[in-house]
Queue: 2 jobs
Job 1
Amino acid sequence: MARTVLHLANTRGHANHGWLNSFHTFSFAGYNNPERLHFGALRVLNDDTVAGGMGFGRHPHDNMEIISIPLSGDLEHQDSMGNKTVIRQHDVQVMSAGTGVAHSEKNHNSKQEVKFLQIWVFPQQQGIAPAYGQQSFAPEARHNQLLQVVSPPGDGPNPHINQDAWFHLGNLDQGFTTEYALKKASNGVYAFVLEGDLTINGQALHRRDGFGLWETDKLVISADSRAELLLMEVPMEF
């Protein structure tokens, strides 16, 4: 029998700074919940909206895998590795902070909000050289299938992170059912519903609900409406 944890959307931490409206699935900044520190190696899952022209000034990170997934709008990125780019809806960006990197993120547009997921994963190895990756994925590539968008090095052409972790995105039609088989028996999967209604292993889920499962070998996923889903498979011990 799988072990599970359910995080309903309305139980997340919340901070509205005016320019930034952020919902925290796990403890972050001023939201400190000792029962919601992380899910295995998944440390941060922030659902952020940044006002036009605003953003996060240059700040440092080290020994953390950072994944950004824009949901709408455009996010401008600059870092100490020399990268200067804009990430947009259907893009996935990864950054291995390793021994240390500084970066800034701001809304590329002055009048339109940008909405994105900011995700942190504990690394497999400490003290590696910083690295950066970015890739665009056609939306039709995840229609009624789970598209792999993040993986460990050597597994697929998608962006790689320094951890035995796999991320998948799916856009599912109402009535569609599929299965997800875990890559490693010791891993768990955290499912985050971006839009719509789903049932995963018998648990009904709705927009922005999170559901973690471990000590299981597969997930059975059914779309109860048109739905968008992010699956994050991560080690439970690291």
Job 2
Amino acid sequence: MKILINALSGNGDALMFSPSLRLLKEKIPSAEIDMLVMFKSVKEMYEHSPFVNKIYHINFLKQSKLKSIGEIFALRKNNYDVSINVYPSNRTEYNVVNFFLGAKKRLAHDYTHTDFWRFEILNNVTVNETPNRHNVLQNFDLVKQLAPMQENEVKGLEIFLSQSDKKNSEDWLRENDLQNKTLVGFHAGSAVLKNHIHKRWDKEKFVMLGRLLEEKYNAKILLFGNEFDLNLEIDELLGGMGVLASTSNYMDSMARMRFCNLFVSNDSAFLHSAAAFKIPTVGIFGYTNALELFPWGTKHLIVREDLECSPCFYNSPKPVECTWEGKDEFKCMKMITVEDVFEACEILLKSKPSL
């Protein structure tokens, strides 16, 4: 059986397919599994996976539509038996791509918040989206259409590092004198597509949290993410006591992250990457659904304000909007205090053996 995984969204969504990828290979060991991605960092994240045969990168966002169509029809010649739209893929374009790839079985979800023009009809094996069900399990609902499997067989998220990635990160750890120290990773950024910049907890609060962790736990704050200007600003406000842990190479971040004793993050790909390395994680959530997006398979605490209007963002291509205006706009994030997050950090740090 030839299977193509369409992981066309970002790293976080793609990563939450990894437990289903393992299950597919375990249940159908003879399957030849390829992957189609839109972002280079997703390709980097999966290129050392033992469960993927080939990864195809089509740069839909930056190249001409004509070139993209040509590359899709080149892939079509592989004669896939199955193609799968990784959850969530609630966009017209993803369903059109899945159709043109020409697989006999085209798996995807029927979404709760959708319309006819998403062209879900182009997929011929569909499952219903289940509200408040974790993304990992939504993906499981897709792959169980191909082979008998049980929900209790779903394991954790997985990122496979190369030996070079591991060695480079170990060298970096020594060069920055970070061995045998309490390392706390921060990701203060987020994606900006669909207005998701509002997922971000205030940078000033991250700074105050960092100071508290330094004072009480002698922690070193590692700043992750490709929001380099934001991280430089936070480091400056920390008096240069932070450590810039990310480079333009996504796998540098992944390899360095595994040394963290704790990770604090907005709802982002880095939140889920920390879960892949089984790092105790504090997730800061506003308008997105923590029941569907909590750090899967690791010890974690979610910090959020339990407002009647939240969560209000559903898997839709429409940009996020807030029902509140003025100073109350996105108050679901603004109301989360440093004390709230620090308390969660302390609970997780105290549950770990001291260094």
